[in-house]
TrEMBL record:
Organism: Sporosarcina highlanderae
Name of the protein: tRNA 5-hydroxyuridine methyltransferase
Pfam families documented for this protein: Methyltransf_3
Gene this protein is translated from: trmR
Function as written in the Swiss-Prot or TrEMBL entry: Catalyzes the methylation of 5-hydroxyuridine (ho5U) to form 5-methoxyuridine (mo5U) at position 34 in tRNAs.
Keywords assigned: Magnesium, Metal-binding, Methyltransferase, S-adenosyl-L-methionine, Transferase, tRNA processing
Residues making up the signal peptide according to the UniProt record: none
Keyword Magnesium included in the entry's annotation: yes
Similarity annotation: Belongs to the class I-like SAM-binding methyltransferase superfamily. Cation-dependent O-methyltransferase family.
Keyword Metal-binding applies: yes
Binding residues annotated for S-adenosyl-L-methionine, in chain numbering: M35, S65, E82, D110, A111, D130
Top-level EC class: transferase
Catalytic activity: 5-hydroxyuridine(34) in tRNA + S-adenosyl-L-methionine = 5-methoxyuridine(34) in tRNA + S-adenosyl-L-homocysteine + H(+)
Binding site for Mg(2+): D130, D156, N157
Gene3D superfamilies on file: Vaccinia Virus protein VP39
């Protein structure tokens, strides 16, 4: 039934631009993880409500989500970080082709090792974390200070395609630590006194943490 709802909703939405369709096909063919259509549509809808002016993104991949964000928000500027060289180079090309190069700043590097001075000093209204899932708590702790009070931190892939529902002992050994870390982060942030946090069962799970004002 869920897939039928998704098909129905898709039939009501406008067809994406040729560039976006090309990026989706490229990601699928090259096994590059990008947000699925229901997840990105919901995420962009939330951003339209929030209307952030400055967004910091951890995990550019090929620039798909950054391009989707700036195309929907006419006044937003995005700083996005990607550590994988090939993905970074593809993102640079796609961003240039999109015509949004003046509003998307992409930085190559490991976000966990990067000095704060590298990040442009904005009062970011939103932080979007979509990188190594087992490191979400470290990303959050390092970059949440860049988010202004009242700002929102979004995290994607909180369900890891259902892996968070599987007991640790039944997970493949190579994934156990990552999934355990992700679940520990979820419990930690859901109870954090400085954030109002919700977990949406949309796409692969989207977490929304609103930074409380003083």
């Amino acid at each position: 039934m869920v897939n039928e709802y998704a098909t129905y909703i898709s039939s009501l939405t406008e067809k994406e631009s040729p560039l976006i369709q090309e990026m989706e096909q490229f990601a699928e063919e090259n096994r590059i993880p990008i947000m699925d259509r229901s997840g990105i549509d919901t995420f962009v809808g939330l951003l339209r409500i929030q209307q952030p002016k400055f967004i910091l993104e951890i995990g550019s991949a090929i620039g798909y989500s950054a391009i989707r964000m700036v195309s929907a928000l006419k006044e937003v500027s995005i700083v996005t970080i990607e550590r994988d060289k090939d993905r970074y180079e593809n993102a640079v090309r796609y961003i240039a082709r999109s015509g949004y190069g003046d509003r998307i700043t992409i930085i190559e590097g490991d976000a966990l090792l990067m000095d704060d001075e590298v990040i442009p000093e904005y009062h970011y209204d939103a932080l979007f974390i979509d990188a190594a899932k087992g490191q979400y708590k470290r990303f959050f702790e390092k970059y949440s200070k860049h988010v202004a009070p009242g700002g929102v931190i979004y995290c994607d892939n909180m369900f890891m395609h259902g892996a968070v529902l599987i007991p640790d002992a039944e997970l493949p050994k190579r994934n156990r630590t990552m999934i355990r870390n992700l679940k520990e982060f979820t419990t930690w942030i859901m109870g954090h006194p400085e954030y109002e946090t919700s977990l949406l069962p949309v796409g692969d799970g989207i977490l929304i943490a609103v930074k409380k004002r003083d």
